[in-house]
């Protein structure tokens, strides 16, 4: 008789992490298929419809990239903090404050020519997100206040502030919904001619590439890495932890704030009451699934956005639109649980002697 | 001859591709003290973990009173009467001795009567002359007493086979003598005792039989009466010529590098751990600090390296006051530090060798320019360290956590001496290392001192101190008991000072 045993693995490569993730995404889809079947639909039909809609048409891919943009920026922002073991749960709020700062600039800022104007708008959104994150970074750096709680709590503050402004002083005239006036044309991010994809996409991809380089090849990225992997060793090496907490949370919030910029200037054209729409939280899931690798964040964001968009298709069949959220959740939990197999391997061995 | 209680036959245990035990045979008789001797990594602990059910062997059999058994879990091992005292005690400090012992019992009652428990434990401790107060809280006990609590736990649970992992490592010389008396009493009452050790003298004096492990195999088994230092040494290290590095008597300069004046430092619990300690180290001098671990050495070294706040007193290096400066400033002023906890403080285990090598120097001109790391220089330097210090690794880009302890330590020392320090603080630099790595590290330290670096060497091995140091300071309970020249010091005096006796 054979018996099953677990053995610790000594090494794991990037490729095996990838394979593992793909495998367990499959497991998650099978798991969800059972639930879809239990609700009374044919899972194969549902999946194929969703897949065709999201990824087999130019239109679907365009849509996925477009709605993936804020997810990418939130995912990149969350990743940089998580790399240093800082739990920034506040991308949602930082996104909202970024958008608020953007709208404020459009409303009250000086008039500038097109390109400097857009750069200023982007900087304002970045500053908004960064400032919101620094509200948590300062207490963390100086008094050790837990950033997971503070960043999370400030989300509610930011979202209520956003609602207030969109429904109150900044509300567009003659509208029923809470949103600001349309953004002036000179601030709109143009599309890439011929592709109908926003120019923001290559810019965000460039940011991801820069971050990749930043982590690997700069002394600053190196310090973040060391602090994230061993705080004791970082202290021993004389690395300034305080400065890095401020830097990293600031950058993290700033990137989430840029999500507000992209959504405002490239997608909706208005700052809306419910603008972040959970992108900040989805960004956490994306960051984890990407193992904080900025380039993988871009890809996973597009996949998640496509999944989200395609749920509308199957709604016609009567499948609840929440199916996308369910699949996202299942993928997250199952893939991360599957990391167990990165650390252990299963061995089949002959059964040993019997116990007396 | 009597029938063995335990017989392990042809035990093989592999971890991935690494063979920890290969065809090991071991028999244990009632009433004997059996010593397992070997260098670190020889497979002693693995073998005992197999016997106590923590690991399952890949092949081989275990016979218990002549019957073949398979030990599937620590619980099963305990039920069979096999108990182990680990090097790091498994006690709960805020609980009393009696409570700790009863926690270990299988049928721990729902309602415990304090009185009854304590009486039962006191009876047990009297029977074996263990002399522990059952009502005392564990945190109040000395390390030696805590060890006895661990032994009572096993005895009260009814263990017939006691395994002790390096039991003397945490004790003073006097406490160790007492402990071996206790073990002898237990053996005389028919129990079997296994001690894991790498100290040859101790094993020859206290054991009945000795099994030497080397590279996962049994190298030799002998009666203790037949053992000689020569035979044991050959079995432990192999045929390699063993020449300890004995340093020549040298005269170091009068130039003072480190001056510590009236240092007081607190430990993590906020208690004073270093009390009014003063000493100086000259350029090219090795200053040894002897003492049982936990008498303020850790706090003292961390304070000198800038990692711990100095409550009172002053530290100057090359005449510059560093007392309240940051760690970074200490590094820049030429203070290098080999911490006792190399894997959690000195190195980042999940990073590779090239990354660990620049841990303190990433900002230097050599390794970066305008914030961009010079990857090529890093790789070349790492490769040159491998050659120069004979570091064995799967490659400069494999995580250092996978390297052996000796190679990790070589890498750490290589990094610390390549910063061109004026003061090198080395805390237990060879703790847990085998003889080969120990020699290599001592050689590097001697080379460094020849270059004029002042070295502060903390160790609990008197052999190491005598071999390396020019002057010896002895610490006990946070006090610097005395500072002696090596020539005028002897083991006996230092042993007395270590246990707190004034000269």
Description:
The complex is a heterodimer of chains A (356) and B (503). Chain A has a two-stranded antiparallel ribbon. In chain A, strands 2-3 form a two-stranded antiparallel sheet. Chain A contains 14 helices and four strands. Chain A has helices spanning 14-39, 43-55, 58-83, 91-108, 114-143, 147-167, 200-217, 219-229, 231-236, 241-268, 279-289, 294-315, 323-337, 340-343; strands spanning 2-8, 191-192, 197-198, 344-350. Chain A is globular and about 75 Å long. Chain A starts with a strand and ends in a 6-residue tail after the last strand. Chain A folds into two domains: 1-37 and 319-356, no CATH class; 42-318, ABC transporter involved in vitamin B12 uptake, BtuC (Orthogonal Bundle), CATH 1.10.3470. The longest helix of chain A is centred in the middle third of the chain and has 30 residues, at 114-143. Chain A is mainly alpha-helical and 356 residues long. In chain A, helix 3 packs across helix 12 (294-315) and helix 4 packs across helix 5 (114-143). Chain A is 70% helix and 5% strand. Chain B has 503 residues and is of the alpha/beta class. Chain B has two domains: 6-237, P-loop containing nucleotide triphosphate hydrolases (Rossmann fold, 3-Layer(aba) Sandwich); 256-498, Rossmann fold. Chain B contains 17 helices and 22 strands. Chain B has helices at residues 44-51, 74-79, 97-103, 114-127, 143-156, 173-188, 200-206, 229-237, 297-304, 327-332, 342-346, 353-357, 375-389, 405-417, 435-450, 462-468, 491-498; strands spanning 6-15, 18-28, 33-37, 59-64, 67-69, 82-85, 161-165, 192-197, 209-214, 217-223, 256-266, 272-282, 286-290, 310-317, 320-321, 335-338, 368-369, 372-373, 423-427, 454-459, 471-476, 479-485. In chain B, the strands form five sheets. In chain B, strands 6-7-8-3-9-10 form a six-stranded mixed β-sheet, sandwiched between helices. In chain B, a hairpin with a 2-residue loop joins strand 4 and strand 5 (67-69). The longest helix of chain B has 16 residues, at 173-188. Chain B is globular. The N and C termini of chain B lie far apart (50 Å). Residues 240-245 of chain B have low confidence and may be disordered. The A-B interface holds A 5, 7-11, 217-220, 222-223, 225-226, 229-230, 232-233, 235-240, 349, 352-356 and B 15-18, 56, 58, 61, 64, 67-72, 76, 305-307, 326-331, 337, 339, 341, 344-351, 355, 358-360, 362-363, 368, 371-373, 375, 398, 402.
